[in-house]
Amino acid sequence: MLKNNLQEWLKLSRKEASKGKLPSYIPLLANADPQAIAIAIQQSNRDRLTAGNISLTFPLMSVIKPFLLFYLLETQGSDRVFQLVDRLPTSEPFNATPESKPKNPMINSGAIAISSLLSPCESLQNWLNQRSLANLTLDLEMLDSVRSVTNRRNLAIADQLKSLGIIANPSQALAVYEEICCLRGNVEDLAKIGTLLVDTKRSPNISIVLEIMTQCGMYGASAAFAQDIGLPSKSSVSGALLSIMTDRAAIACYSPTLDAIGNSVAGIFLIRQIKNYSLTKAKN
Predict the structure, then answer these.
(1) How many distinct structural domains can be found in the chain?
(2) Kind and range of the H or E element at 241?
(3) Which residues make Cβ contacts (< 8 Å) with residue 169, sequence separation at least 6?
(4) Which residues contact 250 (CB under 8 A, 6 or more apart)?
(5) Residue 212: which domain range?
(6) C-beta separation of 136 from 183 below 8 A
(7) For residue 161, which of 69, 76, 85 has the smallest C-alpha distance?
(8) What is the CATH number for 241?
């Protein structure tokens, strides 16, 4: 049974976690427990499997980006959103300063650009909580930690977006972006909001989001991850990782140690085990 396998995979994933490192450029993230780990699988029939320290909360950071995109597509429409950002894969670093229209909404420049359409942060937070029954909260301490960083690359990104004529108010767009990245929850909350992207029949915008996640959601490893595992996924510098099994389930992992690219080492290990298990079950 998957439940029994999940416990065994969790033990193995702790060994994998030791191969990664905590991020150092945001002070509070550097203080996370490197052995912390949790997973929740929320199935479309509302059954849920969990393992690890599921009460542990963490900031969503970049894993919020697919939901920012989905919310804006649902409320403002694709024409408005894609005036500000393309939907193309890129080999550039996720925090690269753009020279033109941002390539996609999963990199910082693209997310900051479309954050200019969102005000305030609470609109996205409330929308997600009400639709999924999650309990996301704004982590003000983490927000202060993000803004305490001396070399804030995102400031330069926001200013460049203004100089390119893409956004009008860089300070407002960046403030909203930083706030939504500091929404906090546990793996059950992440899995719950993940279910908003599971059923592709609910909205044509879901397929758009899943396509962009597949192409762009895992930083510089996106293409290799798509070929290896093939699930639409989004990772985060906090160690959060969300994968979608289309029309079946949302898988939310948390383990804060990262590989050299910035993805959760243990999270990727767990997603791979679950994908392989599902393929084996499908053949039998």
Answers:
(1) 1
(2) strand 240-245
(3) 116, 162
(4) 41, 42, 190, 191, 192, 193, 194, 195, 197, 198, 242, 243, 244
(5) 2-283
(6) yes
(7) 85
(8) 3.40.710.10
Q: Which two tokens stand for residue 193?
A: 């909001």
Q: Where on the phi/psi map is residue 92: left (φ > 0), alpha (ψ -120 to 50), or beta?
A: beta
Give me the tens of pLDDT residue by residue for the chain, a chain 284 residues long: 787 899 999 999 999 999 999 999 899 999 999 999 999 999 887 789 999 999 999 999 999 999 999 999 999 999 999 999 999 999 989 999 999 999 999 999 999 999 999 988 899 999 999 999 999 999 999 999 999 987 789 999 999 999 999 999 999 999 999 999 999 999 999 999 999 999 999 999 999 999 999 999 999 999 999 999 999 999 999 999 999 999 999 999 999 999 999 999 999 999 999 999 887 766 65
State how far Cα 67 lies from the chain centre: 8
AA identity, residue 42: Q
φ/ψ (deg, to 5) at 229: -110, -40
**What is the pTM assigned to this prediction?**
0.96
Q: Environment class of residue 197 by beta-carbon count within 10 Å: exposed (0-12), middle (13-18) or buried (19+)? A: buried
